[in-house]
Amino acid sequence: MGTVNDIITLANAQLGNGGSRYWNWYTDNVNPAQGYYVDGDTTPYCAEYISWLLAQTNTNCIHFPNSVAFDWREIPESQRIAKYNVQAGDIVSYDWDADEGGDHVGLVLESHSWGILANEGNTSGGIVKNRERYWSNILFGVRPAYSGDDAQPHKLDVDGWIGPLSVTRMQQWLGTYQDGVISGQGKADDEYRERVTAVDYHGNGSPMVRALQAYLGIDVDGYWGYYTSKALQWLVGARMDGYFGPKSARKLQEYLNNLE
User: How far apart are CA 196 and CA 194, in angstroms?
Assistant: First the structure.
């Protein structure tokens, strides 16, 4: 399970993004009947965005994954966090029209006397943005099942899963855009990156993978497949079988933790 620090770090890496990635992830992984998001339309995605954050950090939360906000009807009283008690990492539901129905959701970053600072999708012109919200518009919150805070947040957990935090560290290392996701991959290559979970299938290859392939001195096509796994295994000292499983993932995380 992820920590509060994990999800907030990931959320802040999404600032300024539109909704396509989150809506399309939802239709690929949760509910294909929703259909695909098209850039520039009015499809709301605030709940899909929260669902994506939770999934990418391997964190469970009541109501999610979901494509709608929550209110009193969906959440048992025993699992509601009173709005004045919400804290960083909680998910809150908003009510814009005072009818006690959920209209929007956000991730709490900070709690103040006047309200909260929250990270939200589908706001301020349809992008991801951190917003100040007053208590009067908040229904209540729910608390995801986070693990304890990292003792050393600057170090990756060596857990054998290459999720968004490990990918972000790779992007920092390779000097590419830091969003915690390996974009534009092919599902046919999934078997060669078994423990790489922060993958998006939309687009034509990943800039990070291209940078990695250039660094490794292999053919550059932007797709992480057999030969990329094998070359990366050589770099980090794992068995060179072309299948990036848990042992290879841990070796990579150790390698990234040891980088200056």
Answer: 6
